[in-house]
């Protein structure tokens, strides 16, 4: 199975690279993800580029390096990282803490695992996230600078990055805040966020569950505290019951939502391979997480389109993918988020989500699942 998933991850990587990766403004030594396929002119020219989508492109590039380290993949990572900094115009940072956390995670992984020197960028991003902690105002850290909204999509990845860079006390405080403030005690799923007024935004997104799994897994490994393992047991069960009742992660969308299920799959895979084995409940959580990843990946692969020999993944992994075009509505950026194209498969986010899922399936198969 490991070889099968390696081949599928290779195919997903090759599809994204051939359809989406282009030089930034024709500059040598650059590469950035065009946000749609087929693209319109403003997308080809990177007027639309979506910082956090590029951060996940970079994180997928690290996945590929982990799976099969080559000099070509290493050079590609460096080109994409350089291009994000250039296109962002203001350096590494922006006004959204979740965006900066995603980029920090990718850069830190490449530095730690592959000795690609990103020290300056990692330190800049880490400082932004660490200094945003605002327990006196209701958080947590806010969604963006100047906001009164404190949410899981910012605190989860920020906590993961801070745990990996040694700020364990702050990462643990963030995990505790999420569990105390955002967990629905009826379902054990994680709500989106809370206003400083105390008003809870109860909508449930799959990636909120993923980042909390990732954060508690990092802390379970580094601190050994039973409370982090217990939270993981509870959340994996909730994901299986509410978000993947048939074994496949349900739903999905385009725009920003194209990344949500892929992020959940990434951190389910992390739980499956990293959660310490200290009890039968640990083993069950690991096996459940691995099963959801593999069943979702199998469905996504079976429902893909094959275009010129390369996969095109559907926005809903349980349904047949659709062929996109430019004749219908395209993705738009409004109120801090990207709305889906009329055919979501057009969006880079959807294809990154598929690539992320294939890499997650490879990760769990390489660890010996199914057992």
What does this structure look like?
By secondary structure, this protein is mainly α. It has one domain: Glycosyltransferase (Alpha/alpha barrel), CATH 1.50.10. The chain contains 13 helices and nine strands. Strands 3-4-5 form a three-stranded antiparallel sheet. Helix 5 runs parallel beside helix 7 and helix 7 packs antiparallel against helix 8. The radius of gyration is 19 Å and the shape is globular.
Do you know the CATH architecture?
A: Alpha/alpha barrel
- Count of beta strands: 9
Kindly name the structural category: mainly alpha
Average pLDDT, rounded to a whole number, is 96
Report strand %: 5-15%
Low-confidence stretches: none
Brief synopsis:
The protein has 371 residues and is mostly helical.
Helix-strand blueprint:
Elements: H1 2-20, E1 21-22, E2 32-33, H2 41-44, H3 51-67, H4 71-87, H5 97-114, H6 119-131, E3 149-151, H7 152-164, H8 168-181, E4 191-195, E5 200-204, H9 206-223, H10 226-243, H11 260-274, H12 280-302, E6 305-307, E7 310-312, E8 332-334, E9 337-339, H13 348-366
Antiparallel strand pairs: 1-2, 3-4, 4-5, 6-7, 8-9
Helix pairs in contact: 1-3, 1-13, 3-4, 3-5, 3-13, 5-6, 5-7, 7-8, 7-9, 8-9, 9-10, 9-11, 10-12, 11-12, 11-13, 12-13
Brief descriptors of the model:
Glycosyltransferase; 13 helices; three-stranded antiparallel beta sheet; two-stranded antiparallel sheet; single chain; about 375 residues; mainly alpha
